[in-house]
Amino acid sequence: MEAPHSSPAAETVPGAPTDLPEAVTVTVTVESPEQMQDLGRRLARVLAPGDLVMLTGELGAGKTTLTRGLGEALGVRGAVTSPTFVIARVHPSLVEGPALVHVDAYRLGGGLDEMEDLDLDVSLPESVVVVEWGDGKVEELSEDRLRVLIDRATGDTDDERREVTLVGIGDRWKGLREDLVQPGSDAEVAFPTGCR
Known about the structure:
Layout (H helix, E strand, L loop, with lengths): L7 H5 L3 H4 L3 E8 L2 H12 L7 E6 L5 H12 L13 E4 L7 E6 L6 H5 L4 H4 L3 E6 L12 E8 L9 E8 L6 H5 L16
Parallel strand pairs: 2-5, 2-6, 4-5
Antiparallel strand pairs: 1-7, 3-4, 6-7
Helix pairs in contact: 3-4
């Protein structure tokens, strides 16, 4: 197993949800990679063109697995894989929906100025933009954004359990909890696991 990653983004995860004004927070426990991908498929149901999704978590936490589920449910072309070495991949829709722009900002250090070369501000209105390691780099793209914080056990462990915290920031996400809760239930989330 890999050692814990100590990036500034990873260090901000524990306190992040409470630090954000006007944020709506939903927490989900995921027990396997299959459930993480299913979480992505189900989350895609509430996404729309113009949505910015920021993924934060340790290396191997499941960011790309969740994005793979998003891409599947959005009906986009191409296999969703980690864009680490290409920085960004655009997956056009095959079903007349929004494209998926998948960015890995891990190797980018200079905030939005360095991100400008990717033209994310141009892509955002017509696409769902998912940025791995985007904390401190892409917040200026949109006042409304969804942060997905994935917490996993680190060190020498085979534990696949993840605590996934969805933090909706801005007016767009005020109904996040209602969007994710199944009709007729105030406790069950439209995911395979529980939420708080």
